Amino acid sequence: MPYDYQPFPYVAPPGLSRPEPRHRVVIVGAGPIGLAMALELANHGVESVIIDDNDVVSVGSRAICWSKRSLEILDRLGVGERAVEKGVTWKVGRTFHRDAEVFNFDLLPEEGHKMPAFVNLQQYYVEQYLVEAVQANDLIDLRFKNKVTGIEQNADFARVEVETPDGTYSLEAEYLIACDGARSPVRGMMGLEFDGELFEERFLIADIEMKADTPPERWFWFEPTFHTGQSALLHKQPDNIYRIDLQLGWDADPEEERKPEHVIPRIEKVVGHSDFKLDWVSVYTFQCRRLQRFVHDRVIFVGDSAHVVSPFGARGGNGGLQDVDNLGWKLAAVLEGSAETVLLETYDTERIHGTDENIMNSSRSTKFMTPADGAERLFRDQVLALAAKAPFARSWVNSGRLSIPCVYPSHGNDDPAMPRASRPGTVAPDAPLGNDWLLSQLGGRLVLLVLGAELDNIDGAEIIRPEVTDTIRRRYLGSEQRAIYLIRPDQVVAARWPYTDKTAIERAIADIWRGA
Amino acid sequence: MSHLLDTPNLTDHDGFYAELLAAHKGLSEPESHALNAQLVLILANHIGDRQVLSEALVLARKV
Fold this sequence. Notes:
The complex is a heterodimer. Chain A is an alpha+beta fold.
């Protein structure tokens, strides 16, 4: 069943009849990132207004692969379980050359995590769930058919001009967050430009509805016989919808290729029959680009408005949710006055670090998938040839390195006897805790996770003392007998000690709020 | 991590050189390029040391 698009009601905003008081936060764009941003801020007690020029969820499946970290973030926002329930859970990817499998990967080979490695779920469902959560939240005012037409920055606030079906009005906010996507009008109005690479390649992307009995796996082909010399990708989504991506080459005419009379014969060759319905088609090019800075005084860029990557690594939507995760608690603390604005600088540095890792991985995958003539193509073809005869070359076959959270650079105290996977800068690994999960217990607060150690109460941090199960021992203690972990509100490990004292912990907590 | 050896390390280098040429015998130029590319990849994996490989690339690019 294709998705039933229902327009959301437009309500005339109060600003049309009288000036509105200055808001704390105005978010531009009600896509998954803008909606998640508002919910994350609300979790920290911050009110916001979201404005969007449209009144319907995303047309077409668009972002479909939601990573484990994204699901954990969505869970904190109240829609993670719903996304998993509706979505297609997968963790195995298979890569084929011509018609033989050359490589496969398992993204989550171990048990003991609440969220799976990946869930495929059309962006329109994620947006629908988030809109419903936003509408049930008293701290968020979501306004459809409100389009930004102008922006102005002042010393301590930003002002936007907004156009509605009933006329124009202006809105002021202490901070304006631009979540208005890859073609961000806010970015354009501020005269900011992306730096980076544009790849000369076009892909056709299509959602088709068909009944099939394929396993929930990601399948990628190099030079398949059904699409000679090019690449192809197949993903399973809920509602019997399949996503197919086909490489077209740079010379392809996007307008022509979008027409059903061209798309349908191509899909017939992929699936081997014509018993399917075309649901949505688009043609895209590859880009790996970002803004030089994400924070511009009172305007902050989050998600695709700040950075775009080529697909096949699921690093667009997931990267955006990680931006939200990083910014929410910092902006809330700055607005509350419990941290200086310098803390927002760490959103810039940390997310640029994450973005550059995403861009690096996506650029490498893109070069492997669409090599330029000469040495790039020579080595790509020889890796594929070697993969058929030498095991080492199989993992060199790069059909996309899928999104995992980056490790932030950290000066936090570390102990090398504890596991690397939970070192300072990493997202705290999940673990089962009775009927609950560790990450649910951490929530969105500053936490001291105390494992088999003694510790008195400390101001400004919640203490959690879970039972030291085998899983917790494996993920947090390593060869130590005890540990104290200081964990930031975005569940990133800030520091860890086998032994420490109150002063050292208080200093580490102060460092978090100082952005040190 | 160790450093690239750029001093003699292979005793029968004349023998290996002859074997390398023999492996290319009868190949077209594109086939020779393909063989060389595979050799680079196979040896890189065998060496297994990123530092050594980076130094080898620098040496090869040096004019």
